């Protein structure tokens, strides 16, 4: 398939620059088959039933952006991609001239950092301070807002570009479908009999890479690490056995679940994933997807088209543009039924152990 098959016209004014006044006050487009329903996010309670499982990504966004200088005095910007251990990270480095292995950086006028070498497009950096690198980032770093949000991160962003259930620090972009939920909505879902469970997928900066290849098969996906708890595996098995549905909140939750079931068994544990889901993919775990609206020509739009049907999803996006839904990280939500007519099926085996110019959002 060609990348331009996933294009659509997106007016720039529909890109949400700020979150809604309150979590959960956004709109919700419900897409099931060829039917589109314009709803409010609060009505999600009417669209779930007792015995369903809601899967959330509990990753926490770190303050991954740092500014500083090289030994030569040249200015430099660092965006941490992944924390490797207590003192080392992989990072994107922007400078007039790339730093060499063995050179040193001074970040935030406080942090002495050594460049250990290259790892593909990223640099391996070592922080000299005795403190854990996550603590250093929290103190000296800045929140890495997506490139399509034009303002500098402020106090509102530090609160709202983080889910209320964020736990495991490590992401450099938020799992944005989860931003709609507040504690009251999560409790209301539990009260209705919906089981709320978690996965962790640390969203990397690679999620903002546009698809530049003409053919989607030529696009190289970035790698992200994930963890699936045994409790989540068990809840999914129980739900499917009883006719319940698995609702992935965000493409990150879906990618983690589908990655953990690639050998036919949904397995608990940790792993790395470069899964690229495109039309024709056979979904193994997820029945429904709650997600935000994604950019034209993005891997995330391709995933959505694989899940809900290409013709149906592109029609849904045209509808969303016409009805002026808000797009991307701070935008509105969409609930999609998997488009193969199979809901509550037998579970897989369980192992107990502006057009094209912007970049894609995470959810």
Overview of the molecule:
The protein has helices at 133-140, 155-160, 183-191, 230-241, 250-259, 299-308, 310-322, and strands spanning 27-32, 35-40, 53-57, 59-61, 65-70, 75-83, 88-95, 104-107, 111-119, 122-127, 168-171, 195-201, 224-228, 246-249, 265-267, 269-273, 288-292, 333-337, 349-351. By secondary structure, the protein is α/β, with parallel strands linked by helices. It is built from seven helices and 19 strands. The strands form four sheets. A nine-stranded mixed sheet has the order 2-1-18-17-14-3-12-13-16. The chain has a six-stranded antiparallel beta barrel with strand order 5-6-7-10-9-8. A two-stranded parallel sheet has the order 4-11. It folds into two domains: 3-61 and 155-351, QueA-like (3-Layer(aba) Sandwich); 65-140, QueA-like (Thrombin, subunit H, Beta Barrel).
What features would you highlight for this structure?
Thrombin, subunit H; nine-stranded mixed beta sheet; 19% helix; QueA-like; six-stranded antiparallel barrel; 2 domains; 363 residues; 28% strand; single chain
């Amino acid at each position: 398939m060609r990348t331009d098959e996933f294009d659509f016209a997106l007016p720039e004014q529909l890109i949400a620059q700020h979150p809604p006044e309150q979590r959960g006050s956004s709109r919700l487009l419900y897409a099931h088959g060829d039917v589109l329903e314009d709803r409010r996010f609060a009505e999600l309670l009417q669209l779930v039933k007792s015995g369903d499982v809601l899967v959330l990504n509990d990753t926490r966004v770190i303050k991954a952006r740092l500014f500083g200088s090289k030994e030569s005095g040249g200015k430099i910007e660092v965006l941490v991609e992944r924390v490797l251990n207590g003192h080392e990270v992989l990072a994107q480095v922007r400078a007039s001239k790339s730093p060499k292995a063995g050179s040193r950086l001074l970040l935030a006028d406080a942090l002495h950092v050594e460049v250990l070498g290259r790892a593909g497009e990223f640099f391996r950096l070592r922080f000299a301070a005795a403190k854990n690198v996550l603590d250093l980032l929290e103190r000296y770093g800045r929140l890495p807002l997506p490139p399509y949000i034009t303002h500098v991160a402020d106090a509102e962003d530090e609160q709202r570009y983080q889910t209320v259930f964020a736990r495991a620090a490590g992401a450099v972009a938020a799992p944005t479908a989860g931003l709609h939920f507040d504690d009251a909505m999560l409790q209301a879902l539990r009260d209705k009999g919906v089981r709320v469970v978690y996965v962790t997928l640390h969203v990397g900066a690679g999620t903002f890479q546009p698809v530049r290849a003409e053919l989607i098969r030529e696009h190289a996906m970035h790698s992200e690490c994930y963890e699936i708890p045994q409790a989540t595996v068990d809840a999914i098995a129980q739900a499917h056995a009883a006719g319940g549905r698995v609702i992935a909140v965000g493409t990150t939750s879906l990618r983690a679940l589908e990655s953990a079931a690639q050998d036919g068994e949904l397995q608990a544990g940790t792993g790395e994933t470069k899964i690229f889901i495109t039309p024709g993919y056979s979904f193994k775990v997820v029945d429904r997807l709650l997600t935000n609206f994604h950019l034209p020509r993005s891997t995330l739009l391709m995933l959505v088209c694989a899940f809900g049907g290409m013709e149906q999803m592109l029609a849904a996006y045209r509808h969303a543009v016409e009805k002026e839904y808000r797009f991307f990280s701070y935008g509105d939500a969409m609930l999609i039924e998997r488009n193969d007519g199979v809901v509550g099926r037998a579970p897989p085996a369980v192992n107990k152990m502006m057009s094209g110019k912007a970049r894609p959002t995470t959810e």
